[in-house]
Write a structure and sequence with these properties.
seven-stranded antiparallel beta sheet, mainly beta, three-stranded antiparallel beta sheet, Metal Binding Protein, Guanine Nucleotide Exchange Factor, Chain A
């Protein structure tokens, strides 16, 4: 029998009243830095957490990492895990830590593994409804 790693969230254990939901976003999401498209997907996930604004998470395969470079920045969330950050460069412009991702999230947040989220005050996020 394989040895499965267990990585439960200490945040949910200590604060079971805290809620985070992840659901598919029914639309297309494009992320631009100046005039450079750095992500485009119709497979985004919408994360809603307690009193925070909803956040769109984009699958890594729909993020154009050619425009991104990982930084040394990291943060910790007791509910999601450790986040890594990326800077963006394009059209002779750059901005630090525009995207974050939980590459090894806690078990409860595996839905956002290998997905990145962007700061809306550092890039332009265009999220439109899917057209029939």
């Amino acid at each position: 029998m394989p040895n499965l790693e267990v990585n439960p969230s200490p945040g949910f254990r200590d604060h079971p009243e805290h809620t985070i939901t992840v659901e598919p976003f029914d639309g297309v999401v494009n992320v631009k830095f100046h005039d450079v498209i750095i992500a485009s997907t119709d497979h985004a996930k919408l994360l809603r957490e307690a009193n925070y604004k909803p956040v769109l998470y984009i699958p890594f395969e729909d993020i154009y990492f050619v425009h991104l470079e990982k930084t040394a920045t990291s943060t910790h969330c007791p509910f999601k895990g450790d986040a890594s950050y990326w800077r963006v460069k394009g059209q002779d412009q750059a901005a630090n830590d525009v995207m974050w991702a939980y590459q090894h999230p806690y078990d409860e947040m595996l839905e956002i593994k290998d997905h990145g989220a962007f700061y809306p005050d550092r890039v332009v996020i265009d999220a439109g409804a899917r057209t029939p």
